[in-house]
Structures are given as structure tokens and as C-alpha cells.
Batch of 2 targets.
Target 1
Amino acid sequence: MWWRESGVTLLADILTILLNGLQQGAIYVLLAVGLSIILGTLKFVNFAHGALYLVGAYLGLFITGQVPLNNGQLAEWGIQSYGIGLGFIAALVIVPIAVFIIGLLMERFIAQAFYDRPDTDQILVTFGLAIIVQELLRALLGGSSQPFPQPSWASGPIALPVVGNFPRWRLGVIAITAVLVLGVYALVEYTDFGLIVQAGTLDGEMVRLLGIKLSRPYLVVFGIGAALAGVAGVVGGPLANVNPNIGTEQLVPAFLTVVIGGVGKIEGAVVAGLMLGTLQVLLIQTGYAAWSQVGIYALAAIILLVRPQGLLGSEVDVS
Amino acid sequence: MSDEPRDATATAAADADAEVTGGLGDRWASFRDREISTVLLTVVGVAVFPFLFNNFLDGYTQLATLMLIYGIFAVGFDILLGYTGLLSFGHAVFFGGAAYAAGIFSASVSSSPLLVLLAGTVFAVLLAWIVGFLSLRRGGIYFAILTLTFGQMSFYLAASPLAFLTNGENGFTSVDIGSLLGVIDIHGGVPFPLSMLVDNMLYVFVAVMTVLSVAMANRILHSPYGTVFRAIRENERRAEFVGLDVWRYKLMAFIISAAFAGIAGSLFAIEGNYVPLQSLYWTESGRIVIMTVLGGVGSLFGPLFGAGLYLYIENIVSGFPTLGPFWHLILGIVFVVAVVLFPNGIWGGIDYVRNMVVGGDEE
């Protein structure tokens, strides 16, 4: 295996595991941060978050290049391929904006009607939405996997000190995630907008009594959360193939990351995502690949049972 | 919640009404509220179902069997979701787990269908005891996510570390089902008087289990025990103030619903002679949620109906010329519409219409 060939030092092994863990965790973090701020501020459980990731990935494919259609309804109607071929950077810019707008629409037309209904109903309706999105894409574009090409400027390996050769795109994933998460963190922590959102999370009624309208900031929070899921789709797409199931596959680890980190805590989501990612990579690279998935769920179960409010959550958050 | 088994006072009121007015609707209501009539209706229902289904709805007996199996699963799930108000996203563990347990039991211990059924159900109950004990410490979304976590954990456990038992990705193929009580071939035909209705012994076996399950669920939900479940759903804190040990009742509701899932899972293994790995994946848990909600939470027959409708769309409508490829999408849309507009599902809707027509029993 490639990491063994490049210098069998323990340090290199550890660093490789950490870097791969960082990359694996990065996608979890991107999804979880969005999910977490929506759950924390709006108290809305969004099971359709995976579907937003899915939309992001397909939209990314559409913007990046030309994708041939082999099966699905569009192919049967005579359309052979889709895509506008603007390249990866364009996708990275356009997808978040598009999914941000989808998020706004979702908040206005679906989420809002469910704020006062029980968690159970929120889960049910968003779960149904996720199925609709997934099956619409499957029906139109077919269920087969599409390769999502890595951007040419970031494909191939890069030589790193100590670690040796490392896929350039994985570093790209880590960097993009870091920038985005820091951006959202700064927005929530250091701006007036963030202050209102935080205050609203603590005591929405009080904020309203002070004459501050909360519906607009909440709308934006939902949009930002959705946009992060969309970016995650573009960034995560090239790491594996794109097919209609990737949304549901990513949803469960993303939710785990949120609850492990503590609902509404951005830094919690980061810590939890990196922990899950690193554990998964550690198990794979030390020869326990069969246990890698079981491992992250077991870790999640243990943390939730010992510390139900999550690693960085406060006791008050637990309903 | 309109279509619940009426509690004692409502029944008494309905009886009193019946004496005074003696209207057709009231007489029907008082008939409907008796336990024996619920069981009788179920017997008649499952007896004529395959005939009607095969002749008028493009169905076939194997699908009818599968509908009843998922019906049992959904009836049990409703005890948890509809009556106790807990949304589990990990019930595939008990369905799939029981199917695996039943399959492995049949291959290595005994192939008697009744023992296989028992083994699968016992396994599901024991598993539910552990999972419920751990997941029920938290309410709301934490419960949903914890059950989801345990569900996924068991899926990945069965997928590779336990592949020597479960045969991993390929599913468990060596299910070996013998004859019922040593004489009746369970995959064979049926003797004369019954053969006018059904053509398959397996259906008869599953139908008997369905009737028993419905009777059992009906008995539980009408008992004081079942009333406590509803009290917890309506207001957990109030139930606690009255002095009820809410946590213990929730755990029991969880275990009871898992027992139904276990019966269904074992029957599923017996029916198909095969256990797919997919039966443990969380989308399977999602399927049962959809069936139950679509049919109608908080009613006895709603989930049965929902399971039938889901499988009908999945297997029959999917073969229709233009609509076919979009069957899953249609299901998703119907589901969302049901959640938004008809929280009591299709059965709740039927109930509503009936109450409008007969003048009904508004509370």
C-alpha cells in the first residue's frame, strides 16, 4: 500500500492517518456545521440535509462538465448528456448560491409551517422531502454512478515533507473546508447578525420583545446551512462517485457528528467530525477495515450514552 | 386522534346512544368496539383478501403474503409511534435481526417453522431490551438518532465483521424451512375448502399469524397498560406526576413493538427463504415509518392498510407504463402530503369521512 512504500517511519504513518482523517472528517464537518446551526437556532430537525448534499453534487456535475446519460427518463426522452462545462471553480461558486436559494425556499415553504409542530413531524416531513429529491434525480438521470472529475489543477499527488506523496485534492478538501467553517464561525461569533442569531437561540421571545425581528436572520441561517451542504456535495463529489444514494449515506454520519459535538456548536461539530474521520481512517489503515464503519457508530453510541449533550454541548440544550 | 380504540367512557356513551337512538351508525360503532368483532373482521379480511387482490387488483398471492408480513411489522411499529409517540429510526434492526436469527436458526438448529418463528421473535425481543434500554434515556430527536445509530451499527456489523454468520453482502441464503408440525408443506398448496380462497399454504400460515398479531395488539391497546402508552404520548410529564413509571412503560412499548417486528422478520425469512443485507439498512426503518404514517398512526388497521398500499405501489404500480418509473417519487410525494395535511394518514381520512356521513362520534 502506498503509504508504506513512502518511508516506513511511524511518524509518517501517523501524519498520513491524521491527514486522511482530516479529509474524511472534513465532509462530515461541512455537513454537520450546517445541520447543527439549523438545529441549534431554529430547533428544526432537517432529515433533508443529505438531499441538499445530493443536489450540490449533481449541480456540481452539471456546472463542471458534460455528463453522458445512459439510463433514466431524460435518456429515454432523447437527451444524451447534460452539463454546461464551466469548470470546477464555477461550480464551487455557483452551487452554494443556488443551494442557498433552495434553502431559503425550503425554510419559507416547508420548515416554517413545522416550527410549532413536534420534532417527530419535522423528521417525517423532511425525510419525505429527501425521498422526493433522491427519487426525482434517480428517475430523471438514472441510478448509475457518475464519476465526478477532480479539477485538473488539483489532481495527482503532491510531495509533502515527512508524509511523502499525498493526493493534492484531499489537501484541497481540507483547505476549502477550513476556510468555509472559519467563515461561518466568524459570522456567528463576531458580527451583529451572529449576535442576534445567538441571542435568538438562547431566548427567542426576549429578542422579539426587544423589537428585533428574528424571522429574517433565521431564514439566512437556514440558507447558510443549506449552502454548506451544497458545497460539501461539490467538494466531496470527486472523492467518490456520484449517485442518488449518496445523500442518505451521508445523512447519518452527519447527524452523528452534530449530536456528538453538541447541537448548535460549530467547534463541537469540527471536533466530532475530525474524531469520526480519524477513527475511521485509523481502523482502515491498521488493517481493521471491516470494523471501520462499526467503529464510528460504536464511538458515537458510547459518547451519546456517557455525555448525551455532546462533547461541547451544554446541559441546557438537551430537551 | 380520532380513530383510537375508544376508552371505557366513550364506549359506554356509544352504548347508551345505541339504546336510545338505535341508529345504524351507532349499532355499527358498538359492534366495532367489541374485541371479538375486531378479530372477526381481520379473519374475514385476510381470508377474502388474496381472492380480491388477485382478481381485481393485478395482484398475486406472494405479494399478498408480503403485505401481511409488513402489515404485522407496521401494526407493531404503530404501538410505538402512534400510541406512545416515539419515533424510532432503527426498527430494521429488529426486523432484519429477527430474519437473520430465524434464518441461522433454521439452518443450524431446527427447521420447524414455528420454532424458527419463535427463535427470531425472541432474538428481536432481547435485542430490543438492550437497544431500548440505551436509546430511551433521551427523548425526541436524540431517541430517533440513537436508534438510527444502533441500526446502522448492526448493518455494518452484519456486513463485514459478522460475515461468517450472515454471509455478508450476499445476504443469508441457506435458510432451510421444514414442514409445519411435521406434516404440512409450508410452501405447498392448500386442501379443498380453503383452496377456493387461497392457493398457497404459506399465505394461510402468515394470515393466521396476522390475525393473532392484530388480536394481540388490539388486546394490548385496549388494556389499562395500553391506556398508559397513550397517556405518555399526550403528556409525558403529567403521566409522570400521576405516579406512573414512564420510562418503564416506554421501554415495554419499545419491546412490544420490536416483538411484532420480530414476528414479521422471521416470517419474512420463512417466506423468501433468504435474508438480504438490505433488511438491516436504515432505509428499511424508513420504509416502515412511511407505511405506518401513510396508513394512519394511532389506529389499529391503518398501518396494515399502509403496508399494503406501499407494497402495491412498489410492486404493481411500478409496472405501469408511464407512471411506473416514478413509483418511488409518487410514494414520497403522497407521504409528504399525508404528513402535512393528514397527520392521521389515510385511515384517519376514511374515519373523518365516515364520521361526516354517519354523524359519527365527535368527542
Target 2
Amino acid sequence: MSVSLRNQRLPMFQQEARKALGDTQLRHNLGKATQTIRNKRNRVVAEVPDWEQLREAARQTKVRVERHLDAYLLQLEEAVVQAGGKVYWARDAIEANAIITSLVRMHNAYEVVKIKSMVTDEIGLNDALAQAGIQAHETDLAEMIVQLADDNPSHIVVPAIHKNRAQIAELFRASLHDIDGTKLSDDPRTLVMAAREHLRTIFLRAKVAISGVNFGVAETGSIGIVESEGNGRMCLTLPEVLISVMGIEKIVPTWRDIEVFLQLLPRSATGERMNPYNSFWTGVQKGDGPQEFHLVLLDNGRTNVLADPIGRQALHCIRCGACLNVCPVYERVGGHAYSSVYPGPIGAILTPQLLGIENASSLPYASTLCGACYETCPVKINIPEVLLHLRGQVVRAKQQNMLHRDTDPENLAMQAALYIFEDPQRLALVQKLARIGQIPFTHNGVISQLPGPLGGWSSARNLQSVPKQSFREWWHAREQEKKHDGTATR
Amino acid sequence: MEQLRASAKDEILSRVRNALRDVPADELPEHITIERNYRQRGEETREEIVQLFINRLEDYNAGVHRIREAEIPASVAQLVEQYALNQLVMPADIPEAWLPVDLPVLRDGQTPLTNEQIGESNSAVLTACANAIAQTGSIVLDGGPLQGRRVLSLLPDYAFCVVREDQIVGLVPEAITQLRDAITQRHQPITFISGPSATSDIELSRVVGVHGPRHLDVLLIP
């Protein structure tokens, strides 16, 4: 069910977006969801007078971590081991899944409980576990809905937002066999209580829990999970064994840094002053919670992202989803169109870098470059800057791999444009010619339909016609006139 | 597997170092300044902080009972009656003086309680806390005195928490500073509780009490 980010070329965003736009239910749900969360976020952010200072401190913290990641990873490993945990390193998804599977098997467990985690979706862990005969129970309500429906998440904070209550009730009646289906109405509270009852049994019997990581504190080896439903606390407290998968970028240097992120993340993600439950644990605590803790540090393309000095800021992301909620593109097409675990503006810069630009070359174009994502991002990731940077890479990669470079129409057009713009006289000549050539297509100073292959471009845009006089011509005429006037008065 | 682990670690570290070739060799982490010019302490008076904390709790639909310490048993007895509870679960070190007489009490003592005992329906847990945050209406447990294991405050349907007014700080950074020793010296697990658990996963309509306690009552004492 998950979309694994390995050696695969993603479908074109533009085509997927067109499909998604046809789904009116999806668009209705998304529009409502993004607007509601956006409004809540704005309200609680407005009451923090030092929001900008917090954002800047968070950005600086992430820059410090990224520039010294090797040292911080070693520090984290040492601290976790010292506190009684074990640390594993995984180069890619296959390696991570193998480590986790063998840990689960070592405990003779055939099921695990999971806390909502994007990184385990990224590596396709549930499928890997299933292949090894291990059942993974998603315990976040939305993730559970998505899992039962054999579907994919459509939003990173509210993954099942594309489903309505009737669909969910139907799903529960069909899949939760320990719940009396006749008692299940469409009422969200009834549905939530059914999930509570169903999952309580599983929480109490599961031996192994698997989580992602919101924060790994290098100084102390503490790991932090931020959540709302309490399923996280169940997973972090009841099972004997806890396995946490952490992207190597999730480090913060010191415990003190948590004070910044605990203010930024909840307000940005769900528009709450604080989410209901935050858990931090440091290795293993005798007599309290899991008595075995395993931390899997995952690369899986992150070092590729790190290698690009402009693109690496994508690794600062704390997965709040605020950029999704403000994005005019995401709001209309939803998460599925991005064909990746990481949707929205952050996905448009993260996925191509994790996967290789050649595998996701349409994603940097999944944006209007309006800049709302940058403005809202709690760690100030300059998403438009990275989008433009990646678009440049797409073009360069295309030019390099082009078989018929000399006959490709776009390349020829660009080469021609370069030739024209290089020389002012050439440009002036072309402008003169265009003024004549555009006559059949111009109505009231606007070109709304271009001929031939250019028609695709103008199908959704209007073009201003070339004006009667260019700026240079106007300036030249003005100077001439002045000179003329000057001689006349003297 | 040991060998595989060693080589994966070396390879990831060398990938990281390769990726960071643009970082000058003599640059230290401290060279990247982190400006902490955000608010470190609240400027409100003690009473304003307490009031803000109460308001935030009420926002979360938590019960708030501002009482004297001597009134704890009466308050607890009243809550037990109101919710028709069968039992009260608590860490070993909760003082007798907090407990109403004639109430079945399960202490998590030398013999730890089983999950079944703790999670029995219609039970409540009674704890104190490490500190509390007014800005966010949060209660923080760190497994210290009068708090017990994490599971105690997780499985019962109702949670009663005694908070002393001087334990309430204004802002998140103050709480984080206070928790430092619990983390660095004692490796204690930390839980921030901000209202009852909640979900908005079904059509964004908010339902409280998903997992963990469905109700939170705070007994606020001077």
C-alpha cells in the first residue's frame, strides 16, 4: 500500500493532478480541511509575539546540525547506547527493513503496533513485514483507516481526509470483526470509540512497537514523539520492545533546543498550542516502558540531498504540513497527485532529491511559486528557491540526455531565444516582426490562443500582445524630442 | 550482521562527509550562532500565570478545581462519585492524606500492578506532576515523586492530577530548563499532557478521549 521511494520513476504530476481534479469529493474535503487548519494555525501563531525569533532560532539550529551531521550522529549514537539503547545504521530502505524484520523475528513476534510515521511509509516497512509474515497494525486512527482501505495517505497530518464518515463507517463494519457492526453509525464519536476498543486489545497483547522519530537529541540520546490520540503513548509504554526509525536529519543538538521546536511544531501542524501528548524517552528505564530500545538511523537518499548546498535545506523539515495547507496547488489536487509519501510543496523539493531528479522531474513544476509555503514554514525552508534550483537541474539533465538535441522543438526555441536576447538589434528586429505576425491572434491587446504547438501553453493563460512601441523605442523617441525641443528654445 | 552494521555506519558517515565538502574543515558547530532572542520567561504575575493555566485547561474541557491541599480527599471523593468510579490507581508514594476513606485503592508498589488492573473500566489515576506550563495548558510528568510509571497515567479512563501553583511556569522554555536534570542525570521518561487525547481524523470533527484517559481533572493547590 505504501509508495516506496526506491529506483522508480514517478508518474507525471500534471497527469495525476488532472485525475485528482476530477474527484469533487476529494476537492471538497481538502478545501475544507486546509482552510480549517490554516485558520486555526493563524489564530494560535498570532498569539506568539516572538514567532519570528523562534523560526529563526529553529532555522539556525537546523543549519548547525546539517553542517556537522557526522559529529552529531556519532554523539547521538553514543548517548543512546549509554542510556541502554541499541543503534543500527541503514544505508537504504532494504537494509532498514531487514534490520527491523530480524529484530521482530528475534522476539518471535508475528505482529507489531505502529505509531504514525512517514519514514516507515517511505521505506515500505509494512509490506516488508508482511512478506516476512509479520502483521503491522497502524494505530493512528487515520493511518488505520488508510491501511484498512488499502489506500494511501493524502495529507501528512490528517492522512484520511479524503474519506468521509459514511465511507469510514462502511470500512469499519467490513473490517473490524471484533466490533459489533450493527452498533456502528456514521457518528465520528461512535467510530472513534470502536477504534479505541478494537485497538486496546491489540495494544495490550503486542510485544513489539515501531515508531518514527520527531526529534533525536544528540546531547542526551533522548527521542521525542509528538502526537494527539494517545496511540503513541500506548506503543511507547506497553510493548516490551520498541524499534524507532529515524531519518539522519532529525537530530537536534541539545535538550534545550526542544524548547524551540515544541513551540513551533504543534501550532504549525494542527493549530494547537500544544498537541495532547509529547513523549520523550532516553534509552531504557528499568520498570517503566519497553525494556529494549532499538534506534535505526536511516540514510535512504538523505546524503544525496545533503550534497546540494541549496537543496539541503529540505532536510530541515519537521513534517508539520503547514506548507500543504497554504499551497494553492495542493489544496486543489491533494496528496495523491504527488505520487510520493511526501506531498505538497515540501514533497515537491524533497522527493526529487531523495529519488534523483530524473525520477521525479515533473514535481519541481508542481507549484505556482507564490511563496506562501516559505512564509508559513516554521523552520524557514525557502521552498521556492529550491524549486527553481531543481527546475534548472531538470533542464540541464534533459539537455544532457537529449538524443536529438538539434531537432528538439523546445531546445531549438530556447536556443533561438538566447540568440535573439543576446543582441539588442536582433531583439528590436524580432519585436518589429512580431508586431506584424501577431495581428491575426490579437484581440483588444490580448493573445488568448497561440497557433500550432504553442496552443497548449495558451490554453490556460492569456498573453499580452507585443506593444506598439518598446521601451527602448519610446526612450529613443523621447531623447530625440528633447534634443529637438532644446534646439528650438535656444 | 555486526560486520554489515559496521560497514553501513562507515559508509553513511563517509557519504555525509563527502556531501559536506563545502563546509570549511576548521568550522565548529558553535561557529553557527543560534540566536535565542525569543522569550525565555513569562513576564506575568504569579496570579496571572495561574489564571492563564486555568483558562487553557478549560479550553481543553479539562476540569479545574482550585482548592486547599486539605480539601484533596473531598474533591477526589466527589469526582469518584460523579464519574461512578470503581477504583483509584496510584503510584506507591501518594500520601494517605490525599485519599478519601472507604475508597478501593490500588497502589503500584513493590508488586507492580498488572496492565489489566490499571486499565480496568471505570478506574481513575491520581498523580502529581513535575511541572506545568501556563502558555500551553500542559502538565508534565517525569516519573519523579508522586508520578509513578507512565502506564499508570495511560490506561485508566480518568486522570486526576494534583498541581501546586508554584509548579506552574509561564512558558515552554522554563519547563524545558527545569526538566534538564531528569533527562541528563536520571534518563527519566518525560510526558507532556495537554488536555485529553483527541482526534480530528474523521472529517476534521474533534472527538476527545481516543486512547488514554477520556477526562482530565486538575486539582490546583497553593
